[in-house]
Amino acid sequence: MCQTQVISRHIGRIGRRSFDRRMRIVSPLFVERRGEIARLLNEVDALSEHLHDEFPTITEEDYNLFGPELKIVIATLKSLLRESMTRRELKPYNERMREQIVDLEELDHDIVEFRIKALKDEGLQAAMASVGKIDFSYLFK
Amino acid sequence: MEIRFVSIDAFRTALDNLLKVKKGVYASVPSEICNAFQNVSIEQIRQNRDMVLMDNESITIKLRLPDKKQRLSRADGYRLIYMVMKNAPVVGLLTVYPKLNPCC
């Protein structure tokens, strides 16, 4: 198991904060508090960093635990971005939020493709094993 | 230690296709790839955080490259997939594509 609990904790914190923020943005009584958005984006960065660091050790079992939560975070951030794009005062955060969404989506995709599907792909495993048998010494003559 | 770079057909085809795109949109790919491997040791090439696959003999890495021509960061630039051997200073280039338009 990788640090699934740590990842889940990150996701849980972001989930609560982003849902809360989303509700505030859509509320007519919304009062902008840039600090809150900045903290949310910092936490998304921390989650991204953590997923990058743990990527090589993530297992299918781990992903089954945090994958659905990660998808919810991505969907919520997308909604948040859509809403924040309609508010001029939040413009400075939009590009960073877009980059974070793209990064999390790519990570989610790579976990499924490389940490789960690729490990079960017998053809790929055989191809990798045969590459390992190539004698590269001729390249250095 | 001298590092040898080899490539497979899929990589060369992908590179050709990118370079054929109108107005030279992706003309900077070769230089970005060269920059990524300039002045780095084989150990640095192997120990990349963007490792996606590993077996007994090789490590496969999905490297994020910027696109300075279009002013795109590593996150939005190119993706280069390469395989580096564990027991020989050999890097195999597998494919390359732009992150924001993977169909090219």
Radius of gyration of chain A: 20 Å
CATH class of chain B: Alpha Beta
Mean pLDDT of chain A: 82
Task: State the strand order across the main sheet of chain B.
Answer: 1-5-4-3-2
Oligomer: heterodimer
Determine the N-to-C terminus distance of chain A: 44 Å
- Helices of chain A, by number, come to 5
Mean pLDDT of chain B: 91
What percent strand of chain B?
Answer: 25-35%
Helix share bin of chain B: 25-40%
Radius of gyration of chain B equals 14 Å
Largest sheet of chain A: none
Could you give the order of the helices and strands of chain A? Answer: HHHHH
| CATH architecture identity of chain B | 2-Layer Sandwich
In short:
The complex is a heterodimer of chains A (141) and B (104). With 141 residues, chain A is mainly alpha-helical. Chain A has helices at residues 4-26, 34-54, 60-84, 91-120, 122-132.
Report what the structure shows.
The complex is a heterodimer of chains A (141) and B (104). Chain A is mainly alpha-helical. Chain A has one domain (4-140). Helix content of chain A is 78%, strand content 0%. The longest helix of chain A is centred in the C-terminal third of the chain and has 30 residues, at 91-120. The relative contact order of chain A is 0.13. Chain B is of the alpha+beta class and 104 residues long. Chain B has a single domain (4-98), classed as YaeB-like fold, CATH 3.30.2310. In chain B, 25% of the residues lie in helices and 32% in strands. Chain B has helices at residues 9-20, 29-37, 42-46; strands at residues 4-7, 51-54, 58-65, 78-85, 90-98. In chain B, a hairpin with a 4-residue loop joins strand 4 and strand 5. The termini of chain B are far apart. The mean pLDDT of chain B is 91. The chains are: A mainly alpha (141), B alpha+beta (104).
